[in-house]
Amino acid sequence: MEAWARKHTRFILDPVVSALARTGISPNALTFLGLLINVVAGILIGLGQVIWGGVVMTFIGMPFDAIDGALARATQKQSRFGAFFDSTLDRVAEAALLIGLAALFIQRADALSVLVAFAAMVGSFMVSYTRARAEGLDIECKVGLFSRLGRFLLLAVGLLLNQPVITVWLLAILSTTTAIQRVVHVYNQTRT
Question: Thinking of the domain 2-190, which architecture would CATH place it in?
Fold first, then answer.
């Protein structure tokens, strides 16, 4: 899904990446800035400004996430640390958004949705962890229904439509399903 999105948004991203490359800003700085933007979005959500949190995440945070890797490739500043840093901060950014949702549900005294928000966070982390651990065993593991882009698109739509409860339920279910799919995939790959 990510490769398809990257291919079909190049006409938008390439001019932005070219302009940023001329400024000399580092890809890692963009990664960090993207994290800060998602933290702001999480705070807005936690304060009850769900739609504004969605706007910040969707129209500012998500583009930063797409641009940092493209900038690294365009400026030939790709590095193993950069890839690690990006993946690590992606998890923190996702956590910030889901913690914001949990804080919103705490204010609403919706204990079940708080638990579901944390289940969504665990499911999201497990999708990433299962892939990383499989790749550590030299097994490609991009299988599954719901990648990171899918999770962010669901968050974007759910927040912009002001449907936080439905959003966390879908995130929890789809992320956990994807993690299970990856476990089954690795099991099948290691049986031989």
Answer: Up-down Bundle (1.20)
Return the domain boundaries, the chain.
2-190
Q: Which residues of the chain have pLDDT under 50?
A: none
14 is catalytic: no
Amino acid in the structure at residue 84 = F
In the chain, where does DSSP find H-type helix?
Answer: 2-8, 10-23, 27-46, 50-56, 62-74, 80-107, 111-136, 148-160, 164-190
- The 10 Å CB-count burial string (b at 16+, else e) for 124-151 is bbbbbebbeebeeeeeebebbebbbbbb
Residue 110 buriedness (CB in 10 A; 0-12 / 13-18 / 19+): middle
Catalytically annotated residue among 65, 86, 90, 138: 90
